[in-house]
Specification:
Residues 1-12 have low confidence and may be disordered. The two termini are 36 Å apart. The chain is α+β, with helices and mostly antiparallel strands and 380 residues long. The chain has helices at residues 8-15, 98-106, 128-136, 164-171, 175-191, 259-268, 270-278, 307-311, 320-337, 372-379, and strands at residues 41-48, 54-55, 63-64, 86-87, 124-127, 145-152, 155-161, 192-193, 206-207, 211-220, 223-230, 233-234, 247-254, 284-290, 296-303, 345-351, 358-363.
């Protein structure tokens, strides 16, 4: 008997062009013109409350409320409350894409479909943070990543898997690092109010379960993307009135004293800040500079779209076009490799510094990440 291929994707794998096995990450390979990136559009939002429970509304959205521009430096004490007013999210719980998938099941009417075989009009669904890691890969020398990919009803879902190294680092985090992490969240509390005209309340508890997430649709080259990202606050007085442009990303960093320190900050830290905010179209990043005693000694605002002007004088610096071209190439690589539509099949893409991206295939394994309730919801 003649063997009949089960579907076209199986046929393509047997007789079509060879699928590449690895993807290089060398920056020079991606040093071309900036690719097409459509203005990110907000499709909706959701909130995670103090118990990390999902709500399909903006209850956790906070309002940017900086200290008066004139007058003394703010003197925020970022260590205040670390011991007695800190509720930490349980990072050992693997949430995967679940919150975003829940938003999708509740908002499918907002995502018009172009054909019956594809209930979701997007090539990729993922977290913004996963894409940030992809964007910075050509310049990353420390931390590798693992990204699980499943093709389900015409859409590729990308969900991060914690590497062994990352798990070890998380479990063995030093006291100093734990306190530094707290300080990042404490800064948000000093800079945000619960209402547009309110004042920040630094006497409250810092609870890292709480989050407000925006859901963004955009396009990179030939890839349509639907992703969600956590947003620190919105500026009710922003010159850009609509989301996502009116959102503000808050960051802390050690105060700098020399041009050399600033150069290093641009090279190694700004790339992550830029990638995180550029992807969802967040137009401003407000940096709070930490003094040695854990107080904020200065604030600086960066316009996301102008960051490339700050870094282009340094020939040894990263290039936004390289990041975006690499991301487009990675998404094209994923499309070529993952062709079997099956919610229980996972291609695990893996990258370690100094190596190209490669992948392994896992059927019905622990890597399966699309929950049954989601598969059922999209099958009807
Ligand atoms: P800072 O980045 O200001 O130090 P985000 O900036 O993305 O809104 O995250 C808020 C804070 O969470 C960070 O504040 C940092 O303290 C902590 N944080 C986020 N991602 C982290 C990571 N990968 N490792 C350690 N801390 C992290
Ligand atoms: Mg944040
Ligand atoms: Mg932040």
């Amino acid at each position: 008997d003649r063997e009949v291929p089960k579907d076209c994707s199986a046929k393509r794998q047997r007789t079509g062009p060879k699928v590449p096995l690895t993807l290089p990450v060398t920056p020079s390979r991606y040093d071309g013109p900036f690719p097409f990136y459509r203005r990110p559009a907000e499709m909706g939002h959701f909130s995670l409350d103090a118990q990390r429970c999902y709500h399909g509304d903006a209850r956790q959205l906070r309002y940017y409320t900086p200290p008066p521009a004139e007058g003394p430096s703010p003197g925020f004490d970022l260590r205040d409350g670390y011991r007695d007013r800190y509720v930490r999210q349980d990072e050992s719980v693997r949430e995967g894409l679940d919150h975003l998938l829940k938003w999708i099941t509740q908002n499918r009417k907002l995502l018009p479909t172009e054909d019956k075989g594809r209930p979701l009009n997007a090539d990729f669904v993922t977290w913004r943070g996963h894409l940030t890691k992809v964007l910075t890969t050509p310049y990353e020398t420390q931390e590798g990543w693992l990204l699980a990919v499943t093709l389900f009803r015409g859409t590729l879902y990308i969900s991060e898997v914690e590497t062994e190294a990352a798990r070890k680092q998380r479990e063995e985090r030093s006291e100093l690092l734990k306190e530094l992490m707290y300080m990042g969240y404490k800064f948000e509390q000093y800079m945000c109010a619960d209402t547009p005209d309110g004042t920040p309340d630094p006497t409250g508890v810092v609870n890292t379960n709480e989050a407000y997430c925006t859901v963004i649709r955009t396009r990179l080259g030939t890839h349509s993307l639907l992703f969600s990202g956590e947003v620190d606050c919105t500026d009710p007085r922003s010159p850009w009135s609509d989301p996502p442009s009116c959102y503000v990303e808050l960051k802390t960093s050690k105060v700098m004293h020399s041009p050399g320190q600033r150069k290093s900050f641009y090279r190694h830290k700004m790339i992550k800040w830029w990638a995180q905010s550029f992807l969802p179209g967040v137009s401003r990043i407000v940096a709070g500079y930490r003094g040695p005693e854990g107080s904020i000694v200065g604030l600086e605002t960066f316009e996301t779209m102008k960051i490339f002007q700050l870094i282009r004088e340094d020939p040894g610096c990263w290039k936004p076009a390289v990041c975006m071209n690499f991301c487009a190439a990675f998404l094209a690589f994923v499309k070529k490799v993952v062709t079997e539509d099956n919610p229980k099949l996972v291609h695990l893409f893996t990258w370690e510094p100094g190596h190209p991206v490669s992948f392994t295939v896992h059927r019905d394994s622990d890597y399966t990440f699309l929950p049954d309730w989601y598969v059922e919801a999209l099958s009807t």
